[in-house]
Amino acid sequence: MGVQGKLIVSLEVKCGGHSVHDINNTNSHHLPNISPSRVKHFEIHEGEKGKIGSIASWKYYEDGKEMFAKTVIEAIDPQKNSTTWNAIEGNC
Fold this sequence. Notes:
Layout: H1 17-25, H2 31-34, E1 39-46, E2 55-62, E3 65-77, E4 82-90
Antiparallel strand pairs: 1-2, 2-3, 3-4
């Protein structure tokens, strides 16, 4: 049985929103190096990084437990520095 809902995250950072947006869209493969205590692995399965319809998997840590999510990019808005991901598999 899965849980359905919508998760909206706001995060205060000490850099411009464009930097975070760039990392999430075009440099996602660097996330395990940037934050190894939070993100263990990132891999693109279909499509290209930063493109709508691309499918990627994530292994990450939540409360000390390793979690897995497979996501698809549904929307990208560079003007708002916004990306919409939809989890399609995993224990997220």
